[in-house]
Amino acid sequence: MSVQTATVQTVREPDQDRAVSTLVMAFSVDPICRWVWPDSHQYLSTFPEFVRRFGGDAFEHDAAHAAGELFGVAMWHPPGVHADDEAVGELVQESVFAADLERVFDFFGQLEQYHPQEEIWYLPLIGVDPKHQGQGHGGALLAHALAQADADGKKAYLEASSEGSRRLYERHGFEVTGTIQAADSPPLWPMLREPR
After folding, report:
1. Which pLDDT tens digit goes with each residue over 76-104?
2. How many separate domains does the chain show?
3. Going by DSSP bridges, is the β-strand pair 156-160/121-128 parallel, antiparallel, or unpaired?
4. Contact 54, 77 (CB under 8 A)
5. Phi and psi at residue 167, in whole multiples of 5°?
6. 167: part of which helix (H) or strand (E)?
7. Which domain range does residue 28 map to?
8. Considering the entire predicted model, what is its pTM?
């Protein structure tokens, strides 16, 4: 499939549910998400709310972007905007199998160690519906927001959950700052990008 230039627009209120659905589809095969929620029912009944709690502030700050006809979605936290960690933690506590809670919370605890303390552009969630992957939507979403981060003179930060996403982020100037792993989890790579 050829790579095309995707049109990027801000996700408005009428399209928020569709944007969440795109991310649910995109993350259905994500190594980390399926390690946290390995059962399909568990994943499908939890992940839409996880998207809203972990990345939903992007909607309120015009920092949720869609490529194409909502084929891909990126939810950014602009400088000074943060997820409600308590609400995210409560959802994880309620949704993860009891036998897995300790290792999952250990994993999430490591995230905080790498997250920059300065004001940055943070990308908690980006994904493309599997039917539309390989068409340039992810790259277009990254380029769109990184242009704003560069204009602000701010660093950008994210975590890569697969080798493929890691390579995509490296092409956009991100560099790995460590590896997050707990028990039998897949690796997650924190990545930082200096402004250009």
Report:
1. 999 999 989 999 999 999 999 999 999 99
2. 1
3. parallel
4. no
5. -65, -40
6. helix 163-171
7. 8-193
8. 0.94
